[in-house]
Amino acid sequence: MKPKRIEECGCCEIGISPTPEKIQNRPGLSAISYRIGTYPSFKQAMIEAIGKSPELAAWTARVSDDYGI
């Protein structure tokens, strides 16, 4: 199997929020999927949203040991 190149994985695309994740429940499943994200995906979405807010544009903290994060 050929490994994916970084450009193909989609992880570096700008403007695509990691949440909400699309839920696909095909017919006939014994259980349904209901999670639209995980802790890391929601955290990443919030960190990415910081720069989009004019009020927070000057705030440059992005590491997890910062109390604001």
List the helices and strands and how they pair.
Layout: H1 6-9, H2 39-50
Mean pLDDT: 77
**Tally of DSSP β-strands:** 0
Detail the poorly predicted runs. Answer: none
Strand content: under 5%
- Give the class from helix and strand content and strand pairing: mainly alpha
* Terminal-residue CA separation: 39 Å
Q: Which assembly state applies to the chains in this document?
A: single chain
Strand/helix succession: HH
The largest β sheet comes out as: none
- Quick one: overall form? elongated
Number of helices: 2
**Which value, in Å, is the CA radius of gyration?**
16 Å
Amount of helix: 10-25%
Quick overview:
This protein has 69 residues and is mainly α.
Q: Which labels suit this protein?
A:
69 residues, mainly alpha, 2 helices, 0% strand
Structure notes:
This protein is 23% helix and 0% strand. The protein has 69 residues and is mainly alpha-helical. The chain has a domain at 35-69. The longest helix has 12 residues, at 39-50. The protein starts with 5 loop residues before the first helix and ends in a 19-residue tail after the last helix. The model has no long low-confidence stretch (mean pLDDT 77).
